Amino acid sequence: MSELSCTVSHTHQPGWFDLVSVMIEGMIANAGKEEAEAFLISMGDSLAGRYPLPEARTVQDLERECNLQLARFNWGFVQLQPQDAAILLKHHALPAGDSMLEKESWQRALAAVLAGLYSGWLRAQGGGAAVAVVLERNDGHTLHYRY
Prior knowledge:
Layout: H1 3-9, H2 16-31, H3 33-50, H4 59-73, E1 77-83, E2 86-92, H5 103-124, E3 134-138, E4 142-146
Antiparallel strand pairs: 1-2, 2-4, 3-4
């Protein structure tokens, strides 16, 4: 197999998921699930600051800008749906991670990062500082959040 075909067949640099998996396992082992989740939410919020979205005039604009950034990370895509005084977020096509960390643990960790990321982006669009994006359900394929 040529080096070019190896590069094309992998969407992430070799070792990346290994490092992230080891870090997540270490956080959970040392701090516990709840504290690790809080830390990962905070990291997602910090990531929103590093990758800010342009001001969105409509929900469709916001969804498009979120998806442009998510595509940059190869982290799947989100659908936004206004509902009464809330916005429902459905995140699809999560990166699979590696086989070393349990699928449920990987998804829980990534769900926390994404909750922080979406909270930061929505706050920067004028959302309330006390309002957070909350994971309501993970059906194994899609993360369902409410803001």
